[in-house]
Amino acid sequence: MDLSTTFMGIKIANPLIVASSGLTSSVDKIKECADNGAGAVVLKSLFEEQLITGKAKLINQDDMYFWYPQALDFVNTISKEEGLSAYLNMIEKAKKSVSIPVMASINCVTPWEWPRFAAQIEKSGADGIELNIFIPPTNINLTGYKIEETYMDIIHEVRKHTNIPIAVKVGFYFTNLYRTLYKISNLDINSLVLFNRYYRPDIDIETLRVVAQNVYSSPHEITLSLRWIALLYGRISKELVAATGVHDYQGVIKQLLAGATSVQICSTLYKNGVPFLRTMLDDLEKWMSRKEYSNLAAFRGLVAKNEENTAAFERLQFMKKTTGKLF
Ligand SMILES: Cc1cc2nc3c(=O)[nH]c(=O)nc-3n(C[C@H](O)[C@H](O)[C@H](O)COP(=O)(O)O)c2cc1C
Question: Could you tell me the pTM of the whole model?
Answer without folding.
Answer: 0.91
